Structure formats: structure tokens, C-alpha cells
Amino acid sequence: LPYLVFRFSNVYGRYDNDIERMERVIPLFIRRIVRGEPVTVYGHEKVLDFTYVDDCVDGIVRGIERLLAGAVRDRTINLAYGQGNSLVRMAELIGEALGLPPQIIVEPAKRPGEVSYYVADISLARDLLGFAPQVSLAEGIRRAVAWSRAREAGR
């Protein structure tokens, strides 16, 4: 049975709002900054690879098309943006998009062994699928904030 396995990295964007069930950092920080509450970053140097949902969908579609065409099979492929950003920078971008200054508290890393630096290698996705993520963290944050505001206004 031909297959593809996709690995994603910190996907965010529309519908990423189930904070009660899943503590996801971008919607959590949006909510806290809107409320004027501080956001806590555990580990000043922590860097992660954030990927906007539309880029992931594009990669999945490309993968399925190539799998069905027989051009690629039996691979595990990273679908991510391929660049790292610090959590502090991400919080600053959310503040900029909201037009509100974030209150950022930086604490030591929360748990021993927690990932402090991760940037995905997307070379296979690029080479096999023609994958090229389009949405930078700054643009993705603007879109996520706009979606969040529209959702709150519609309640």
C-alpha cells in the first residue's frame, strides 16, 4: 500500500481556538494580550517553527496529487515553514497585530528535556512536492488575529 506520512510543526490559523481543551500558544497569547493579561514565555531562547494552516493544506494537496500520480510514495515528509522564531518574537508580533503592547514575562525553561529549539528540514517537501510555504509568521499572525477578532465579533 503506497503511503505518505506528513509531519507538521506548530500549525496555527483559522479555527485554532480550542484553548480549554488544547493549550496552543498562539491562540492563548492572542486571548491573553486582548484581555491585557501577561503572557509567560518559558525559556527566553526558545525557538520553534510555526506553520500557517494554509501552507500545510497546500503541502497535503501536493502530496496526495503526487502520490496518486505515482511520483512519490512511502515517504515521511515535514510540512512546516522551515524557519524558526522565538516565542518572545511571536508574542511581539501578536501585540503588533492587535495594536496592544504585550506584557511578556520570561521564566526559565518549564520542564527539563523540553524542546528549546526546533526548525523543520523541509527539503524533501520542497524537492519531492514542490512545496514552498508562503505565509510568514508575521503575516500568519495578522491573519490569525483577524480571524479571532471576526469570530469574537460574531458571538
Give the gist of this structure.
The protein is of the alpha/beta class and 155 residues long. Helix content is 40%, strand content 17%.
Structural key phrases:
155 residues; alpha/beta; Rossmann fold; two-stranded parallel ribbon; 8 strands; globular
Question: What's the CATH first level?
Answer: Alpha Beta
Whole-number mean pLDDT: 93
Examine the coordinates and then state which fold CATH places here, giving the name of the CATH topology.
Answer: Rossmann fold
Low-confidence stretches: none
Beta-strand content bin:
15-25%
Largest sheet descriptor: 2 strands, parallel
What order do the SSEs take from the amino end to the carboxyl end, as H and E? EEHEEEHEEHEHH
Could you characterize what this model shows?
It is built from 5 helices and 8 strands; from the N terminus they run ββαβββαββαβαα. By secondary structure, it is an alpha/beta fold. The chain has one domain (4-144): Rossmann fold, CATH 3.40.50.720. It has a two-stranded parallel sheet. The longest helix is centred in the last third of the chain and has 17 residues, at 137-153. 30% of the residues are buried.
List the helices and strands and how they pair.
Blueprint lengths: L3 E5 L2 E2 L12 H10 L4 E4 L4 E2 L2 E2 H16 L6 E5 L5 E2 H12 L5 E4 L15 H7 L7 H17 L2
Parallel strand pairs: 1-6, 2-5, 3-8
Antiparallel strand pairs: 4-7
Helix pairs in contact: 1-3, 3-5
